[in-house]
Predict the structure.
Amino acid sequence: MDTSILLIYTGGTIGMKIDPQTQALAPFDFSHIMEEVPELKKFGYKLDSYSFDPVIDSSDADIPFWQELVRIIEINYNKYDGFVVLHGTDTMSYTASALSFMLENLGKPVIFTGSQLPIGMLRTDGKENLISSIEIAAAKDDEERALVPEVCIYFESQLYRGNRTTKYNAENFRAFRSANYPVLADVGIHIRFNPDLIRYPKWGKDFKVHYDMDPNVAIVKIVPGMSVNNISILNKVEGLRAVILETFGSGNAPTNGKFIDAVRQLVDNGIIVVNVSQCHAGRVDMDAYATGVALKKIGVVSGEDSTIEAALAKLYFLLGKYPDNNDVRVNMSKNIRGEISK
C-alpha cells in the first residue's frame, strides 16, 4: 500500500513567498506544494495538503486553534500514515506540547516543522525541514508500524520530542533546543533514529482525542526585588485554578516570610501552584535548599524537569479533564506523555 502523508499548513514563514508585484511576503497556495518543492515527487508518497483559511500568525495560537488541529488529525487519522504540521516557530513548542496531551495513544507521527526563511527564498531552511519531516513521518519498522509515533518537532537536522522543546534562537536556523531530553533522531546523510528514546503506544489500543482544555492558569516569573503583591493579587482573579512559578535554579525563590505566606495563601485557597525552573536545563529539586523545602512543605507541586511550555499545556489539559484540583495535583507529578523524566 502506498505511503500517505497529510501536510497541514497552519501558517508561518515556511509557507510564504514574495509577491512579484508588491514584493511583500504572502502565503502561497499549498495545493501547489509540488511546484514549490519538486523534490517531493521523488518520494513516490501520496501527499495531500490541508490549509487553514485564513492562515494564522503563530502568535495567535490558542486553544480553539489547537482543537481545530486535533479535529483535522482525528478526522483523517485512518486515512494517512503520518502528519506533517507546518507552523510558525514562535509558539510551535506550545502547540506541540498541547497536542502531545490532546492525542492519547498516538500510533502515527505528528511532525511539526517550519522555517526561519520563506520557502521561496534561495537560502531557505524550509525545504530541508519539510523534506526530512515527510521522510520521518513516513518511516516504518519491519512490522509496518510508525518508527516515531509521537508529536515531534523537526528542525535543522534534529528530531525532538515536541513537549521537551523551547524556541531558543530567533535568528539561527537551529531555532529549537531540548535541554533535558536527547534528540529522537539525527539527520545527516542517513536518518539515525534513537528507538530507546522514543515513546511507543500500547499497540492495538484505540487512539483517543481530548478537546477539553481549561486556560485558567497564570504564570509568575520570580525576579529579585519583586513585590509579593504580584502573587497576592492572584487570589482575586476570578476562576483562576493554577499558577506556575518560574523560579531560580533548581526551584529556588526568595526566603522572606512574606513571599512564602503569599504562596501559602494561594495554596490554602485551593489554587494549584507548580514550581518550574527558569533555567533551560536541569530540574526542580525542592529538597536541595531551604526555600524549595518551604515551598514543598506548603503544598507547591514540583514541575520536575519540564519546560514552561509543557507545564502550561499539561495544566490546561489536566484542568480540562478533572474538575477536582486534587486530581490535577496528583497527575501533575506523573509522566503522562514523556514530558518529564521519572
Q: What stands out?
A: The chain has two domains: 4-209, 217-332.
